[in-house]
Amino acid sequence: METDNLAPPRRRGRRWRRTAAVTLPLALVGTFAAVAAPSAFAAQYCGGVQYNVVSSWGSGFQANVVLTAGTAGLNGWDIEWDFPAGTTVSSAWNVGWSQSGRTFTGSDVGWNGTIAANQSREVFGFIGAGPSTAPTGITVNGESCDGAEEPVEAELEVSRANVVVDAGSTTSVEVGFSAATEAASTVTTTRTSGSTAISVSSGGSLAFAAGDVNPKPIVFAATAAAQPGDSAVFTVASPGYASKTVTVTVADLGEVTQNEERFLAMYDQLTGSDSPYLHETGVPYHSVEELIVEAPDYGHETTSEALSYLQWLEAAYGQVTGDWSGYNESWDITEQYAIPDLNPTAYNPSSPASYAPESGSVTDYPTQLDFNASVGVDPLGQELRNTYGTNQVYGMHWILDVDNAYGFGECGDGTTEPAYMNTFQRGSQESTWETVAHPSCETFDFGGDNGYLDLFVGDSQYSQQERYTDAPDADARAVQVAWMAQQWAAAQGQESAISGSLDNASKMGDFLRYSFADKYFKQIAGDCIGINNCPDGSGKSSFHYLLSWYYSWGAGANGDWSFRIGGSGVHQGYQNVMAAYALSEGGLEPNSPTAASDWAMSLDQQLEFLEWLQVPQGSQGAGAIAGGATNNWGGNYGSPTTNAEFEGLYYDEQPVWHDPPSNRWFGFQVWGMDRIAQYCMETDDARACNLLDEWVEWALSESDISATDYSIPGDLDWNGEPGAGLSATVTSMSKDPGVAGAFAKILSYHAAATGDTASQTAAKNLLDALWAANDGVGVTQTEARADYCRFGDEVYIPEGWTGTMPNGDQLENGVTFIETRSFMTEFEGWDQVQAYLDGGCTGPAPEFSYHRYWHQVEVATAFQTYAALFE
After folding, report:
1. Is residue 412 scored above 70 in pLDDT?
2. CA-CA distance, 806 to 335, in Å (whole number)?
3. What is the Cα–Cα distance from 128 to 17, expressed in whole angstroms?
4. H-helix or E-strand containing 385?
5. How buried is 326 (Cβ within 10 angstroms: 0-12 exposed, 13-18 middle, 19+ buried)?
């Protein structure tokens, strides 16, 4: 493919629609509420107002409003209408609003006030209670917008796509139509695959009169001889409508508890062919919404983190239901799409990589490769080859373009999805907003003459190649989850059902030891300053035995050369003592001869490291865990600016990532402490339990948690260093649902380990508040994104360098983030961002209610964890 032959237009991501497929959150799971169809209004003086009920539960609902301007356009708007009797609004976003009796009034908030003539935009949304019927008497700027309703096409809907049943018992779902039908319909339910021990006991054929939107039950029965794990798939169909499937699984449930019900409801939201969280391959998106920028730079990318959460969700489902097929499938998806099959013919552990120094400024790139710099010996390469008979690295690459929006495809084909890609390449100061997206498989089809390589490293000549990067926290989470799956399946007598997946996790842990090593296998001995002054490692003298930020590997296109590097930057939030425990003595010991002993060393090293980083009693923020450490200051073996050392590593307040500071976010506190809490509960290790006790005391003192609402730390500020005035201050509060879910698990483990009733009460209240934040798609909280002003940030391209993205976007000096990603202007919500940018980022920041996949799984598994421990 030539550089100027652009890839075909990208396939649009599958559109999604909120539904009331599960009862949220005011009624028990299993009932059905037909979502009111969108009603459109036309009027002489305005283009129209579309009132969409996007989800409904019990006595509550969520709606949004789409406003169409008339022939004169709108430069600011005020809207008014009358609700049906009994309808009230409890909260709304992107609108100034009030309600008096049945009358609702709203006005724009600046950025959403301008609508061109005859153009439409979604202007605001709200949560309501009572009847969700469309309002009447609608006016915009005092002019009537009432008119004839436009017909809406009805759809067949079921209340649950996945249900469980006890042997010898029954379970049910409800089926109905989303809007009034024009003619009478018959809905039939038939088993299309699976166990004959499960059948439809009633509701196999249901008659609906024309216009009937009242749901009807379908009852499934399992025979007394049915075994836990048996399942069957049933097709619910009606002529002229798209059919639905329901999977019924036999489980030894006993009485399903409140938090098991909540877990199963969220599992239903997150799984199935219609789930907005999943690509058609089963790979989870980072978020339902496409327009979101954080470490992944748009929402329909995914990360190895998300895949590890897919495994966690399915393992938890196995614990609740006894059905482990989903857990095994999650590993199949991981192997197929996230673990590269690169297997070079040549790899020399004695010369693992060539040195490329990092810099603190993106404008210093490309940095020159130094082939004369001395590097150490890879102590794992030969052992792993002897064990597995291959040069493949069994680790997950950290990021995928799931919808292939960039158009890289697989090794230049431009079309394959999901597609391996990468972003961060230019040192610790490079933020997401400064990255250049590029393919992991560099074939020179896109970018410049040398693809994208010469933006990052300087060389006399460049070759086509593949390069991959592992995020060790995700691989370690996969191992942690595998250990939990092993315990739960064994308790059910089903460990053999997941033996292959457990073997995969053990193998992944074998390769995860690369995260123990200095980046260029230099000796961990302190005073490692200057690449040629720092002693080369031999044996395992290059191991710090901690989980670093990354490890990486790659090879030339023909496999005649390859490289591997470790990771020098160590972050506290990446440490996982549960993975170390599982891989050293917990039943997942890898096959390589020295792996279990390495992980035993790591377990002790991690605990001691976290003790060193914990803010001491008597200091502000006592109990919080500080950033981390490195053997490779600045990524170029520079001179450290700290006097604090741990086992040859220099203290680093913000390891690896400086924009924003990597340890500012409270989420890294809960991710790391979750593993400590579980390890304390499982082993009663005094070191872990002391770390946990002090952390929980601090975190609860900084939080406000009730059964209806919560506020937890958001950002932290750090001062001092270990042994010299280390302290932490909470600088902002947050309602981040994913962080709150992880926090609830920590509190649950703490309560189970210590009997602490305050922790259990806080966990329960936090879970109740999170359940109330489920909008029918998942748990979400509205968040303002002032950082979206950075869509206009410059992405540094050296003067004189030019290239082209697959969609034709130009890469040249002076381009901005959005100019290198113009496809993002097509995403829903871009008009908010554009208005914010046009206003100089001086008005209210655009607000979004995101549904991040990892958020949902953290919350869902928090429900499952609490149920397993206390219900």
Report:
1. yes
2. 27
3. 18
4. helix 381-388
5. buried
CB 228 within 8 A of CB 317: no
Residues facing residue 564 across a β-bridge = 553
Give residue 204's Cα distance to chain centre.
38
Helix H or strand E encompassing 97: strand 96-100
Residue matched to tokens 């995020």: 471
Secondary structure, 3-state, 708-723 = CCEEEEEEEEEEEECC
Which residues are catalytically annotated?
305, 473
Q: Considering only 78-92, 458-472, 651-665, which range has the smallest mean pLDDT?
A: 78-92
The answer to whether 705 and 772 are in contact (CB under 8 A) is no
Is the pTM for the entire model greater than 0.85? no
Q: How far is CA 96 from CA 77, 99, 142, 751, in A?
A: 11, 11, 16, 42
- Please choose, from the candidates 781, 775, 783, 709, the residue with its C-alpha nearest in 3D space to the C-alpha of residue 63: 775
Sorted by sequence, the CB contacts under 8 Å of residue 705 that are 6+ apart come out as 711, 712, 762, 765, 766, 769
Burial of 350 (0-12, 13-18, 19+ CB in 10 A): exposed
Sheet holding 88-93, edge to edge: 39-41, 48-57, 60-68, 120-129, 88-93
* 544: its two tokens: 């710090």
Classify residue 308 as left (phi > 0), alpha (psi -120 to 50) or beta.
alpha
Convert the pLDDT of each residue in 272-296 to its tens digit.
878 999 999 999 999 999 999 999 9
| Max CA separation in the chain (angstroms) | 84
pLDDT band for 85, please (50, 70, 90 cuts). Answer: confident
Is residue 34 scored above 70 in pLDDT? Answer: no
- Cα angle vertex 671, ends 667, 675, to 5°? 160
Query: What is the residue whose two structure tokens read 């003459």?
Result: 449
Q: Structure tokens of 546?
A: 């901690």
Region 702-716: mean pLDDT is: 97
Which residues does 814 contact at the CB level (< 8 Å), separation at least 6? 794, 797
Averaged pLDDT score across all residues of the chain = 91
